[in-house]
Amino acid sequence: MRIVPTVAAMQKLGLRWKRAGVKIGFVPTMGYLHDGHLSLVREARKRIGQNGVVVVSIYVNPTQFAPTEDLSEYPRDLKRDLQMCRAAGVDIVFTPSDAEIYPERQNPKSEIRNPQLFSTYVVEEKLSRVMEGLARPAHFRGVTTVVAKLFNLVLPDVAVFGQKDFQQAAIIRRMVTNLNFPVQIIVAPTRREPDGLAMSSRNKYLDTEQRAQAVILFHALLAAKRAVAKNAVPAARLKRDLAEFITAAPQARLDYVEFFDPETLQPVARVTRGAHLALAVYFGKTRLIDNDRL
Ligand code: AMP
Fold it and tell me: How many other C-beta atoms are found inside a 10 Å radius of the C-beta of residue 76?
């Protein structure tokens, strides 16, 4: 396994493989890896085969965090991440610094720093206007911009994303279609802890009590599935019921419950089987999200 810390070296490798016809599978992450991330690595390997190369990027992207969010506290453990990647058969771990991704110097030898040197963003204007996009303005602009940059550096044939971030995956798919990136986007299922809580790097923030209560998100998904198993239900009613169900956990503070069409991400008035449910719930300062098809 090779660790690649610079943009120049990563793009050189990408180009070399591309010219040699080597298939490239890519898993972008913000590190602090768990089995959810590794399941994406396994999926990438399955798609490209033993002769292909699997690239994992570990980069906590500052442009997708609002000033009020947890950028500086975001958990990091590169040593452990690298061990996990090695054990999972990853070929390349791309670990760029902020200065590599968002350069502030026109000439690397110059002392002059100028944050204004980075001024080009990729913005998806439809799917990113709901749910996480409302709760976290500018978040998806950061995501699409960094993923577009990573695609230009890694030059993947296949990139694997998690259903855990359903809206993110939908927006990346849309970006790839709209901007003609020659990349196949795969969305892999959400990996869960034994009690049902979706694996997430942010679960580390939860104290014992919050961790025990956090399983309410998973139970809310199950309750919604049961509610629409036989009959369509008005979305407003089901939202009210689920809000009550979730806030029965004493530390839970609901951000949103949304029922939507999985293609358009637009809200539905009546919830039927096949509709999609997304949840965002705070436990203290920690914001957890989950979603599933009903
Ligand atoms: P992150 O490091 O949180 O930015 O996530 C990197 C990738 O891993 C994204 O495509 C996520 O959707 C995916 N991911 C995060 N948690 C899980 C999970 N529990 N199961 C499957 N994929 C996940």
Answer: 14
